[in-house]
Amino acid sequence: MKMVGVRVSCVVSVALLAAEACWSQPLAEWVVKSGQWRPTRHEVAMLHQGAPAGEAVALCRTVAGRGGAWRTGVEPSLGAAEAGLWVQADENLAQGLLATLGGGPASGGGLRLRTPGGDVLWEDKLAPWQPYQPYIVEAVVEDGRARVQLFEADGKTLLSQSPWVDAPAGSLGQPGHLALYTRDGRARFFSWERAEAPLSPIVADAPNKRRLVQGEDSPWVVVGPGNWMWTDITRTRLRQYAVIERSSAILRQPTGPEGTWECRVRVSPGAGGAGMLFLADAAAQTGFIAWLGGEWGNGGLMLYRLPLEILWSGAQGCWHYDTDYILRAEARGGWVRAQLFSADGALLQESPWAPMTEEERTRQGYLGFMTWMGCAEFWGFPSAEGAEEIAQGAAPAAPQVPAGDIGKGWFALGDGAWEWANDALRQ
Question: What's the pLDDT score for residue 104?
Answer without folding.
Answer: 75
